[in-house]
Every structure is written in C-alpha cells, then in structure tokens.
Design a protein that fits this description.
By secondary structure, this protein is an alpha/beta fold. It has three domains: about 1-95, Helix Hairpins (Orthogonal Bundle), CATH 1.10.287.70; about 105-220, Rossmann fold (3-Layer(aba) Sandwich), CATH 3.40.50; about 235-339, Regulator of K+ conductance, C-terminal domain (Alpha-Beta Plaits), CATH 3.30.70.1450. Helix content is about 55%, strand content about 15%. It is built from 13 helices and eleven strands. β2, α5 and β3 form a beta-alpha-beta unit. α1 (about 1-25) packs across α2 (about 30-40) and α7 (about 180-190) runs parallel beside α8 (about 205-215). The radius of gyration is 37 Å and the shape is elongated. The two termini are about 60 Å apart.
Length: about 350
C-alpha cells in the first residue's frame, strides 16, 4: 500500500507538470521555457522566465500549490515506508528478545550450517524450544525465515550466549565445522553455566579430549559415525534395514539400557534349522525376543513370522540382555553379528 501511494503521487506530479507546461504554452511560451518554468516553480528553485500578467500569476500560484502538494505527498510516503520499516524491525527485535528471555530449559544451537539446519529441523518437529546463534547474516536470515528464534553474533562471546539465555538453557550444541571454535565455545558456555549439558561437534578424533577438558559432556564425531553406519550396513544389512531411522540412535539407545540387538544367520546343520520362530523362542526360554525375520535375500519381515521355519541362510533379528543372550546362543550353531 505504501509503494502504491508513492506511484500515485508520482503520477499526480507528472500530470501536474504536463498540464502546467501546456498552460504556459497556451500563453505563447515555448515548450522548453514552459517546462523550465513549471519545474522551477514546483520545486521552488528559481524566478520567472518571462514577465507574468495577472492571469499567469494566478495560474502560477495554482501550479505552486498543486506541485508542492504532490512533492510533499511523495516525500511523506517515502518517510512513512522508512519509518514503518524501522518501527516494525524494532518491535520485532523487542518481541524476539522478550520471547528468548522467557525461555527456560531450552537448547542453544551454535552454528546454522548443514548439521545445524538438520538439528534445528528435528528439534522444531519435536516441539523442543531452541535458539540459533550464528554470526553470518545470511544464515540468520534463513533461520528467521523458518520461524526460528535467533541471536546474531559470535557464540565465542559471553554477551551473545547470555542473550541466548545460557543461564536458563538445558543443553547447548556447538556444531561449527571449526574444532578450535567449538572448543572455545564449550569453554565459554561452561564458565557461564555449570549445569548446562554441552554437546560438541569434532572433526578430528584428537579434538575429543580437548573438548571434554573444556567441559563438553558429549562429543560427536560426524565422520566416525558416518563410517560406522556404512560399515554396519555392509556387515549387518538386515539389522540396519530394520533399525535404520533418521536419527540412527536406536541401537545405541538399547545398549544404554543393557540390551543388545543381534542378527542371527542360520548356518548349515545349525540346531535352529527347520524350527519355527516360536519354537526357537521357546527353546531360548525368554533369553531373547525375535523382532524380525529375513529369509535369504528377501525383505525384512516385521510381523506374522512366528510360524515360519528357519532355513540355511535365513536371519533372525533378536533383542536380549547381553549376558543372557550370549548364554542362549553359545551352542546354537548360528552366525552371530552384534549391532
């Protein structure tokens, strides 16, 4: 609407200039003298080109009033656009600052690169509150475009982390590609909040020790995780087909609970050969639970497999406690592949 008003004002001014020029031409002036007179009169920059009679004086007064009103209208619209933009920007910053100030037990994401963007998307889908901290204006604009709360600045500065609410944060994740910056951010955050959980990204394995010394609770090595995931997909494809998800954390989470996930492949003359899945579980006496079955090179079967018989080359994916699982499988003649 503001730009539309400017366009209308410019059109009104051009119309006044054209009409006034025609009016002076009608009085016998040349086109260039008429146009020059109109421009100088409207913008108040000069005197009369030719002597004016009473009729032209009245006409010039009308030109001055009409032209000046058009110019003032255009200037006013421009000032309004600038003022409204600044006011809206200021109000937006105030609202953002107030919202961040009200956050509690939130996450602070330092770095909005490739990993930071994926992390923010996952947190947003999980409705977990978070604040993005980044120094790059384009990345901040991109994050704000997604509706994320952002603080522009270097996370290595205490003032920036304080603005992000480090004193009230539950977790801080520094995922910058530079290990030195991640170490410095970890050290700064730990000094500001002794209770916050700090997760740090490390590109080099040798950086892990430095990050933990700086105060990181958990160090994530993306290169190592990616390599392990590929290796697992090669060596135990059935398990990874079942357990693969966007996070890749299921297997590790089970291990934290004292459980193991194994892929049991029936070998030639194995004791499990020819038995149904239900018979195998009964024989194991509750030591493990069969959660999926893969017959040869076929797809993973996730349900209705209890009555299927195991043949050579078939695989069972089982969950069980480490000690009990090992005891149950010691004499089973199966190829065991631990996840």
């Amino acid at each position: 609407m503001s730009f539309k008003k400017i366009y209308l004002g410019i059109g009104y001014l051009l119309l006044i200039i054209a009409g006034s020029t025609f009016g002076y031409e009608a009085a016998g002036w040349s086109f260039i003298d008429s146009l020059y007179m109109v421009v100088m009169t409207v913008f108040g920059l000069g005197s009369d080109v030719h002597p004016l009679n009473d009729r032209l004086k009245i006409f010039t007064i009308v030109v001055v009033l009409a032209g000046s009103s058009a110019v003032v209208y255009i200037y006013g619209s421009l000032i309004r656009i600038i003022t409204e933009g600044e006011i809206q920007r200021t109000l937006g910053n105030m609202k953002k600052t107030r919202t961040i100030g009200e956050l509690k037990d939130h996450a602070i994401i330092c770095g909005y690169g490739r990993i930071g963007q994926i992390l923010c998307r996952e947190l947003s889908e999980s409705l977990f509150p978070f604040v993005v901290v980044d120094l790059d204006p384009e990345r901040i604009a991109s994050a704000e475009g997604q509706g994320y709360l952002c603080v522009r600045g270097s996370a290595t500065e205490e003032e920036c982390l304080i603005a992000a609410g480090i004193e009230r944060a539950k977790v801080l994740a520094t995922v910058l590609p530079q290990d030195t910056l991640n170490v410095f951010i970890t050290l700064t955050a730990r000094n500001l909040n002794r209770r916050v959980r700090i997760m740090a990204r490390g590109e080099q394995p040798t950086t892990e020790k430095k990050l933990r010394q700086a105060g990181a609770d958990e160090v994530v090595l993306p290169a190592s995780i990616g390599a392990m995931r590929i290796a697992h997909s090669i060596t135990r494809p059935a398990v990874m087909d079942l357990l693969s998800d966007a996070h890749g954390q299921i297997g590790r989470d089970l291990k934290d609970l004292g459980l193991e996930v194994d892929e049991l492949t029936v070998q030639h003359d194995a004791s499990f050969a020819g038995m149904t899945v239900s018979e195998i579980q009964e024989r194991a006496k509750g030591a493990f639970l069969v959660v999926a079955l893969k017959q040869g090179d076929g797809p993973v079967i996730r349900d209705k497999f209890q009555d299927l018989r195991m043949n050579e080359g078939d695989s069972m994916i089982v969950i069980g406690r480490t000690k009990e699982l090992g005891t149950a499988l010691d004499k089973s003649d199966v190829k065991r592949t631990e996840l």
